[in-house]
Amino acid sequence: MKPSRCGLASVAFVATMVFAATVAVAQPAGVAEPAGCQSLASEQRTAPHAFEFGDMERLWGVIDQAKSGADPAPEQWRSLASGPGYASLIKEEIPQDVLFESIRVAFLPSRRAQKLQWQDQDKPALRLVDHFIELDGKRRAVSLFMAQLNREQAALSQRAMALACGYFAQSAAAHKRRYIVAFAAFQKDARGYSDSIVMDPLFALEAGDNLVYWLAHETHHYLRHASAVTTTSAAKSAAAQSLTWVLQQLQSEGIADQIDKPHTFFGSGYMAQSKFAEFFRAEAAIAPERIVQLDALMRELADCERDCDGIGERIRGAAKLAGHPLGYYMAGVIERTLGRTALLDGIGNPVRFLMAYNRAAIKDARQLPVFSDRSLAYASRLFAQP
């Protein structure tokens, strides 16, 4: 599986939101903070996170060089690719040549015809092009916000860690090094990789005082990586890999989404009126139907002996938006019915998550669907069990 990530805007880009002037650090009511995890935030004299802005400084230099009409020098490109943010993005999801070419098409005057060609072809890389152009158009606002974050990072870091620890029962005090948060433009989203958090500056700018929730979400992914169980040899096929990815997403994103989505996608949240949040809520509303669908596909895959790849594709299709809404629903059922302790038990083990959901669904008065014994047995074969 690729590292856990928020990944929401990779499916649909969020609408531009109003920028708030300050970063809020007030704790929402009712957020539990397990002492062991919280000790990392409270006992360290330095903030748990180290914000890195060098990727953006190098990107501005590359953009200015391209706008002047000259292709940036090889050393400029190498320097850009070596920063903590872009090094992680290149390693995990954006090929280096795609990243570089998108910047060239966005800003080199000689590439205007190519940009029009990409528009005619509806190339996926055009999203990167448009994002870089929007970023450059808001350079002053972005730069001012980055300076503000630099001043306020200690308070923001402490608050984000506290929120993340509210959904992480294990101690993180043994983690001595600081968590790198690299600001690097790629799309309006954030990523929680195993070695760093990457935050898009436009995404951060538009989040404003909600940024603490997104940072806490990605921090939770960072914490979880150390506890994540590995897959077994039974998960080698493409279809099995699709299933393990979905199950990992359901637990990882489902729990992390409890931190931020109630404040951003629901009620008076700043993104609540966006089409993206509306789709998220609609998918969460039909989650019981998705569970029935996913269970049937898991049983089908468990019994499949040949030509199984199509089942894997359908499994991914059943978990819309990379499993976020379905995982959010399942995690909510567990916490409301069995309590947060049951939700966090075995936090890196997707099979334990399915089993906890089943216990909660059976106890729930709404007669919710459950995963079959056949599906649970098959899932257990795919993950190393302690």
Task: Provide a descriptive summary of the structure in words.
The structure is a single chain. By secondary structure, the chain is mostly helical. The chain folds into two domains: 8-225, no CATH class; 233-382, no CATH class. It is 60% helix and 4% strand. The protein contains 18 helices and four strands. Strands 1-2-4-3 form a four-stranded mixed sheet, sandwiched between helices. α13 (287-303) runs antiparallel to α14. The longest helix is centred in the middle third of the chain and has 27 residues, at 139-165.
Major sheet details: 4 strands, mixed
Q: What is the averaged pLDDT score?
A: 88
**What gyration radius follows from the Cα positions, in whole Å?**
21 Å
Oligomer: single chain
Strand fraction band?
under 5%
Report strand order across the widest sheet. 1-2-4-3
**Which of globular, elongated, flat, extended, rod-shaped describes the shape?**
globular
Poorly predicted regions are 1-5, 7-36
Number of helices: 18
State the secondary-structure class. mainly alpha
Q: In total, how many domains does the architecture comprise?
A: 2
Using DSSP, what is the number of strands? Answer: 4
The helix/strand order is HEHHHHHHHEEEHHHHHHHHHH
Cα(first) to Cα(last) distance is: 19 Å
Proportion of residues in helical segments: 55-70%
Provide tags for this entry.
386 residues; mainly alpha; four-stranded mixed β-sheet; 18 helices
Write the layout of secondary structure elements.
Blueprint: H1 35-43, E1 49-52, H2 54-67, H3 74-82, H4 84-92, H5 96-107, H6 112-121, H7 126-137, H8 139-165, E2 179-183, E3 190-192, E4 197-199, H9 201-207, H10 211-225, H11 238-264, H12 275-285, H13 287-303, H14 309-318, H15 324-338, H16 340-344, H17 350-363, H18 373-382
Parallel strand pairs: 1-2, 2-4
Antiparallel strand pairs: 3-4
